[in-house]
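Notes, Module 5: Reading structure tokens.

Key idea: the token line is not a picture. It is a compressed description, and you learn to read it the same way you learned to read a sequence, by spotting repeated patterns. We will look at two proteins. The first is printed below with its tokens.
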Amino acid sequence: MEQQAWRSAELADLPALLALEQQAFQGDRLTRRQLRWLIQKGHAQLDLLQIKKDACWQLAGYVLLLFHRGTSLARLYSLAVAPDWQGQGLGQLLLARAETLALAEGCAMVRLEVRQDNLVALKLYQQQGYRRFAQYADYYEDHSPAWRLQKRLRKAPEGVQRHVPYYQQTLPFTCGPAALLMAMGAQQAETRLDQRHELQLWREATSIFMTSGHGGCGPRGLALAAWRRGFAVSLWVNQEGPLFTKGVRSPMKKEVLEKVHQDFSEQLAEQGIEEQRIAISLQDMQQALEAGWIPLILMSSWRMSRSKSPHWVVVTALDAQFVYIHDPEIDEEDQKSCLDTQQVPITHLEFERMACFGQEKLRACVLVGPVRAA
């Protein structure tokens, strides 16, 4: 084959990329605005394959990967081969490039979506070790479904996994209620996963004040909200007293936080809910998953989105290398979708770093168990 070269896309490549989109795809094409964002600001890698023919370099194809900060997951968002170069094995070459880029970014897994009627692409992916693990309904512009495929780049034994329905938080401050909805939905299929229920939980579990904006939910409020709905709960918090007070300067707000904490503590005592005054370990979490519990974990969002705020996620699985989470927050501005925030793999070491918030090194977990016997 002619001389080949790889390079990262630049803004000057936009006309050629848009032309390739028109040639390679019948629909679901990337727009100029999307491509510009991905090249300039997106947490992504867009690599071009150029081939020299008749002393001229031609754009033969591209591969686009999206990355999820703080995780070991890469998503193959798009792969295109120019019509003049199809049938020459470039699809396999682009796929290998995607895996090389993912490994260079520290990722251990690549996921992608493909049309169920695209038999050529399905054959390519399956030949290269990609396996179906889910279906996504109404994925494409014409409402056709997609197969979800994934490949482990670094092998690890499979561990315990729970089926947890996914729910996206509808407001910036409702990650805790959204995570709790997912956990309750895993334990009881009849649980309503909607905004009305999400806001009901937020009103019950909020600590009223945070560093700014609307109040967030602490572990004690979430535990009580789950208990009131009939679920077993186990609470793990490595600190006594009111939480999230270091970022609050107003004496009045601190006083309110202290009163809310006292009220939550009294309610927990009345219901006989004990606090484990230690941080939950990965071994404890694995045992909880095996016993049928769903862990809600308080994270620092800094390593994922560069924002300094507490954030709740749901642990869905754990194996010898990774902790898998459902993250209720979707950064749509960065071309993310709910496909990027479900079953996200995080290495054990990175998870231990992320599951710790603030200068006080707060670690909190709410285990949501099955519905209690009447």
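Here is the second protein, with the sequence above and the tokens below, as before.
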Amino acid sequence: MLRGFYTAASGMLAQQRRTEMLANNMANANTPGFKADQTSLRAFPEMLLSQIKEQSFPAGQKNVPTSYNPIGALNTGVYLQETMPFFQQGTLKETTLSTDVSLVDINLPINQNTGSTGSVFFTIANANGEIRYTRNGNFTLDSEGYLTTGSGQYVLDQQRNRIQLSSSEFEINEDGYITGANGETARLGIGYSDNPMSMVKEGDGLFRAEGELADAYTAAGVMFKMQQGYLEQSNVNTAQTMTDMMTAYRAFEANQKILQAYDTSLQKTVNEVGRIG
């Protein structure tokens, strides 16, 4: 009975964490460049059940098992194994602002080892000068004319240098080249990951990679372009997310009722079984 108690409790915990993940996706449905998280549930631990047949011997000798017939696996719980961002490109929304720029995926190779499609990212330097990556092209100019993210982190060029402009009157072509009002030029730094699932999601729409990503401009088979005056929207499917949240809630509720039934049975066992009338 206690095994079933723990199984139902693990199901509740897994569905609670899944609901929290889905709620975070819904909260970021309007965040530019946001990539929705996905989850995978896994049973644990698996026990293989077998039927043991014994051969009978004369009195005084022990019976010895002679054969094992597999019955099947028994799973005693479930847990949320991992969360992974979904890197499909979101829709583009026109803003007409010169500081807004979106990455448009044209052809990104499929990783033969993982089966996942690669992804390209803007290159960012965080407050500690560490390299980070993002799909959120909602940029702005700070008081010194540096191109930054909405949270004040520096956008880097192809050589990993900060980009400084004289004014917001600048142009970005499809190849990422920036031309300022006073003739200053730079090229947006774009990184390419052939396995974006290995990247770690951080706050403010940033991703961390192990080491620096390859230069997307020179990566084999990678085709993309920049589009100024547009923002990539979140790829969260709000209708599907609401459906998934309701499913997770119902699963949580079902496990809760099972847990209550086990609790009632245990209470009766303690208070009533074995009572001497």
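Summary for the second protein:
- The chain has two domains: 2-83+243-270, 87-232.
- The mean pLDDT is 86.
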